[in-house]
Amino acid sequence: MAGGVSKAVLNAMDIGANSFALFLKSPRRWESPPIKEEEAVEFKRLCEKYGYNPRTDVLPHGSYFINLATPDAEKEEKAYGGFIDDLHRCEKLDIGLYNFHPGSSLDGDHKVAIKQLAKNINRAISETKFVKIVIENMAGHGNLIGSDLQDIRDVIDMVEDKSRVGVCIDTCHTFAAGYDIADTEKWEAFWKQFEDIVGWEHLSAIHLNDSKAPLGANRDLHQSLGQGFLGLEVFRIIANDERLQNIPIILETPVGKDDLIYGEEIKLLEWLKDKKADDADFVEKAAELQSLGSKDRAEQLKKQQTKKEKATKAPKRKKNGSDILSLLAKKPKTES
């Protein structure tokens, strides 16, 4: 959307996208100039011209600064200001979905943080008209909310208008959080858990990413489709899963300086339609992509092994008085 939000429509059209994501303002700043009226009109005109329904096909991503669950009241209010500003921008553009990271409890109580997050979602719904707030599942690093499906269920339970809240499942985050989805049996088992815990009616979007880090690593490291630890098979399954029709499926794979790589991956996904796991050309393509990502996977496995070895060698000590004083003297964690 550099040069105006309407440019996102043209960029999506140029790579053959049926749906697209965008930032509604700079993700690197708390405040940005409002969207000009003429730019909003142009965004809607281009959506209509190129066949995008902004209520269903567009999934803006919230700023990474936003943490509605922070135990710091001043920071919570600042985060809410950025959050509600994004939602108002959505409604100005007639966008019906808004994806965001649910945040972190930091050094606070996790259950209290979940309750606070739900409170802020209810507050935002009361101050807007139609945009659906879509909670993204997370990879599980630190005290993040949403790496466990139960976290998301707990938030939804406390949202008063459940028609205004949804869920985005990120394939990399899911795998990194310890949910194995790499083959048909595991894919189906995950969605059975999702149905039992969250409810299929809340699925509103998919973020499509392979993972540079291995299963359960709790590391949010996106990789190009087929090159990571997930491999191409899960994306073949996704391309043929009729349950995922009519929701935005968004690529967040590494692109470097060339967004046209998204176009290549869209073509790959279209090629996977109707492919079988034992088709010779599929097997060949899967092996080719795994080869391209072999160096990255080896590096991550080495890092994971080093981490485990350090954890094993670390001496376990009883906390005496001086240990406790040392802990109390440490500076608290700060938000990223």
Automatic annotation (TrEMBL):
Q: Which Gene3D superfamilies match?
A: Divalent-metal-dependent TIM barrel enzymes
Q: Which UniProt keywords apply?
A: DNA damage, DNA repair, Hydrolase, Metal-binding, Zinc
Kindly give the InterPro entries that the UniProt entry links to this protein: AP_endonuc_2 (IPR001719), AP_endonuc_F2_Zn_BS (IPR018246), Xyl_isomerase-like_sf (IPR036237), Xyl_isomerase-like_TIM-brl (IPR013022)
Indicate, by first and last residue, each region the UniProt record lists as having compositional bias (Basic and acidic residues).
294-312
Q: Where is this region: Disordered?
A: 294-336
State the superkingdom: Eukaryota
Ranges for the Xylose isomerase-like TIM barrel domain? 12-269
Cofactor names from the entry are: Zn(2+)
Q: Does the keyword Secreted apply?
A: no
An example GO BP is: base-excision repair
What's a GO cellular component annotated to this UniProt protein? nucleus
Q: Which GO terms describe its molecular function?
A: DNA binding; DNA-(apurinic or apyrimidinic site) endonuclease activity; phosphoric diester hydrolase activity; zinc ion binding
What does the similarity note say?
Belongs to the AP endonuclease 2 family.
UniProt cross-references to NCBIfam families, sorted A to Z: nfo (TIGR00587)
- Name recorded for this polypeptide: Apurinic-apyrimidinic endonuclease 1
Origin organism lineage:
Eukaryota, Fungi, Dikarya, Ascomycota, Saccharomycotina
